[in-house]
Each structure stands twice: as C-alpha cells, then as structure tokens.
Design brief:
The complex is a heterodimer. Chain A is an alpha+beta fold. In chain A, 49% of the residues lie in helices and 17% in strands. Chain A is built from 12 helices and 10 strands. In chain A, strand 4 and strand 5 form a beta hairpin. Chain B is mainly alpha-helical. The radius of gyration of chain B is 19 Å and the shape is globular. The chains are: A alpha+beta, B mainly alpha.
C-alpha cells in the first residue's frame, strides 16, 4: 500500500456524492397516501413561501411539469421515482445550487435532502437541518418524545434521517469483494446497494451506503457511523486498486484506453454501453492510467448523458436511436475538452 | 394497557377485591395507584404476540382481522402489505402490533436525537416525568411512602405545567 496517500485522498477517490435526508410529517394530517388533494396542495406553497424568506428557491409542482422535465429532475437525483408515481400533489422545492431538495407529498409530507459532491455528510446535514429548522417555524411537525419524528413507515421513525454516500468501487467489484463488504456493513447496521439496477453487483461500479437504523440513535451518531465506514471502505478500495495494477497492468490499461476510444469516436452509443465505458474511464483516471484535467466532470457527464437530460440539452424530442447518436456526439465533444 | 384512571400512563399496578362475591378490579399506573391509597400489586401485562416479526406481521392480521386505527381507518392488513401507516395516531391505536415491529427494525424504541424547537419544553417534561414515575414505582415497592409522596407531588407539578 502506498503510505504517502492520505485517507482524505483515498476517500476523495471513492466518494462521489453525499446526501442526508430528513423525513417530516405535519401534525394532525394523515400521511400523504391517505390525504385528500385539497389539504395536500397547501403544503408545497406554505413550505415554499417559508423557505423563500431565506433566499432564492424554486418550486416545481410535478403535475405542472412536462414529463421530460420531471424525468430530468429524477435523473439528477433531486426527486425520487415515488414522487412521480401516483401523485397529483407531489412537488419539490430546490435551493440555490441544487444542494437542497425538499420533496412534498412523497411517502411523507416533507422529505428534505441536503446534497453535496464528494464526501461531505456533515455539510449535507447542516444544509438540510437548517431548512428543517425553518420549516419547523411554519409547520407543527408530528413528533413524540418516545418515537421522535413520526413517519409513514416505521423504518424512518426517530431522527427520520437517512445519510447516504455514493461510492465508486471498481477494484472491490472487479476483485469480487463486494459481497463481503455488504455483509460487514450489515453487521454495522448499514446497507450497501448497487446504484445502477437491483442487486449488489453493480454496473458502473457505483454503490450507495446508508444507515439502516433511525430511532434510538442520534443524528451525529449516524453521521459518524457512515463516515467511519466510508473511510474503511476507501482504504480497502485503494488496496484493491493497487492489486489490479500489479496483477495485470496491460489488461487494465488496454480496457481503459479502449473505453476512451469508444467514447471519443463512436457515432452512436446506448445508455448501457455509455455507463460501462465511462466507468472504465473513471477507473483509468483513478489508477493514473489516463489523465483528464477535471475528473469531477466525468460524474457530471454521467448525469447529463441520461435520456431526459440529453433531450433537454438538445432541445428536441428524439427516438432512441437519435438519442444514442446525440449522446455519442455530446460525450465525444465534452471528453475532448478534458484532455 | 393504559391506566383506567388517567388513561395516559401504562397500567403497572393491579388491585382486586372480592366482597360477597362481588369482584372489584382496577388497573392503574403508579401515580394513580399511589393516590388511591389501596394495596396494589405490580403486574406486567402479557404481550399480545411475543414472537412477532415483520415477516409474521401477516400472521397477526389473521389473529386480529378487525385491527384498525380508529382515527384514519388504516387496517393492519394494509400495513402488512405496504409497510405504511395511515396517520400518527396509528402508532397508538395499533400499538400492540406495531411496537414489536419497531423493536425488530430499529433495535431501540426511545428517540434520543433532534427535537423540534416547539416541542423541546414538552419533551424535557416528558423525559423528566418518566424519570420521576420510575422513581415513584421504586419508592412504592420499597415502601418508602414519604419519598413516594414527594415524587407524586413533583409529577403533579409537571403535569400542571404541561396543561398550561
């Protein structure tokens, strides 16, 4: 192991984004699935007007958005699939820089999220907790001394808090250590799941780690346990990356360069192939097999190349093949800028 | 099971008297029992389904098909299917079924995290009141009735602060 690499660097090479979500409900109102539209519709405007006192925010009412715009928000992970489904009264309030996203009438009346790039759970928590304090001035939250914040599903009681970090773990994946990781995490009452698709073996080498327990534990304890886990995981990932290089340098270098070749030259490329190639490019960057002048931009491109965001960028509706052609063009242009 | 008198605290004291074939039974919490000035015995109510798990929640709704929240009408069957409760009152109304589920999912059943500012006085009172009522139960068991009377007065004070 290379002792001159600091833990902060190892974590920075693994953590892609951090988020903290707080679930809240309003006293005296049944949870969203049991509530009539007339009462549900009040919540978004009241929350928006309260948050607006503290700076510029944007309110998007899902039923008033075009399907593309709604899907684009979901691709950017500012709203969930659940907010889009079965929902005439779903809304989202976005803070400046999209570091705050407050969903209204998802599973709970209010689901506020603080989102930060890289490893930044403490910062994400501060952002969302500040918004929570402000919303608490406007609404009486359903709360009991014993069960804490009352939520629609008992899995969210107490702090109502889910702290998650998205991790890029190519070496642990390729060296087949993910199951072991999932088991260890389970013992610490943390869950790890693949970001793309179901199951634990993820395409894109992307995983999300989050706390399982929300009641009987404090917010700081949750942050601490997730932060400790990502430090340990990052060290392991770093070790495995060194092993990859030592075991078969030529094979990995070739794979990375071919992926770069496809992304900068293909005429059309599907989402799936794009994700696979981009993941290998990111692996290459992390192993110093390939250099780009802005590694973080690679993560931004992964979002922008998704179907709805791509459609918005090109400003016209396209069928699947047209999108695949535009995706190839978009990526090729942007990657060339990074060289 | 709630105290018959105050309907707030859980009943932990049982009194039974039989006079000429007429049986009088009372289930009271520690503070109300102290006020009644009669000989009560401590008891623990049996838990409905001791080996309840999230998976066997299905079984519970077979045993209790009528179980539903009096406020919003959500049934235990609905909860089993969706894992969603209907309103905050469901947690009380369906307590005996939900409590084991919470214990299984969360490990603990007492919140120790953030408290909304509007509730902080109330929560401090609730925490203090729990501490005092546990002390009161101990004092009664140990027959330290002076201490019990003092604790009972402190509890009354907190309760009256709560009503303001």
């Amino acid at each position: 192991m290379n002792n001159s690499v600091s833990i902060e660097k190892m974590i920075a090479d693994t953590a892609v984004s951090s988020r903290v979500r707080l679930a809240r409900n309003i006293e005296g109102m049944p949870f969203p699935w049991k509530l009539g539209d007339d009462r549900k519709n009040e919540i978004a405007r009241a929350a928006y007007s309260e948050l607006s006192k503290y700076g510029k925010h944007k309110l998007a009412v899902i039923s008033e958005l075009s399907p593309i715009d709604a899907e684009a928000l979901k691709e950017k992970r500012l709203i969930s699939q659940e907010l889009l489904e079965n929902n005439d009264s779903g809304a989202v309030i976005l803070g400046a820089g999209e570091t705050l996203s407050v969903m209204i009438n998802e599973e709970d009346h209010i689901r506020a999220q603080g989102i930060v790039k890289g490893s930044g759970l403490a910062e994400a928590y501060n952002i969302v907790s500040a918004a929570d304090d402000r919303l608490a001035e406007r609404f009486a939250f359903s709360f009991s001394a014993e069960l804490g914040y009352i939520t629609c599903c008992p899995t969210n009681l107490g702090t109502g808090m889910r702290a998650s970090v998205m991790l890029f773990l190519p070496a642990l994946t390729l060296n087949r250590h993910i199951n072991e990781l999932v088991n260890s995490a389970g013992k610490l009452r943390l869950t790890i799941r693949g970001h793309y698709g179901e199951g634990t073996e993820a395409s894109g080498y992307m995983y999300q780690i989050s706390n399982q327990v929300t009641l009987g534990i404090s917010e700081q304890e949750i942050l601490q346990s997730v932060n400790e886990a990502i430090a340990v995981i990052s060290i392991r990932e770093h070790e495995e990356r060194q092993k990859l290089l030592e075991s078969n340098y030529a094979a990995h270098k070739d794979r990375v360069m071919r992926a770069w070749g496809i992304l900068t030259n293909a005429y059309k490329i599907s989402s799936e192939e794009f994700v696979a190639c981009m993941s290998d490019v990111k692996l290459g960057v992390s192993l110093n097999l390939l250099t780009v002048n802005d590694p973080d931009a690679l993560n931004d491109l992964m979002i922008l190349a998704q179907p709805a965001n791509l459609t918005k960028t090109y400003g016209k509706l396209m069928d699947a093949e047209e999108r695949d052609i535009c995706r190839a063009e978009f990526i090729a242009e942007n990657l060339k800028l990074l060289k | 099971m709630k105290c018959e008198r105050c309907n707030v605290n859980n009943a932990t004291h049982h009194y039974k008297k039989s006079v000429n074939g007429v049986v009088t039974e009372k289930y009271l919490c520690a503070s109300c029992a102290a006020e009644e000035n009669m000989p009560f015995k401590i008891f623990s109510p049996p838990s409905a389904f001791p080996s309840f798990t999230f998976e066997s929640a299905h079984a519970a709704h077979i045993y209790a098909p009528q179980a539903k929240c009096g406020k919003c009408g959500t049934t235990l069957a609905e909860f089993n299917e969706t894992a969603y409760l209907g309103c905050a009152d469901c947690y009380n109304e369906l307590r005996r079924y939900i409590e084991p589920v919470i214990k299984k999912l969360q490990d603990a059943t007492q919140h120790i995290g953030k408290v909304p500012k509007a509730k902080s006085a109330e929560v401090s009172r609730a925490v203090e009141r729990t501490r005092l009522s546990r002390a009161l139960e101990r004092a009664i068991t140990e027959e330290d009735f002076e201490a019990a009377a003092r604790l009972r007065d402190e509890i009354r004070k907190i309760d009256s602060e709560g009503k303001q």
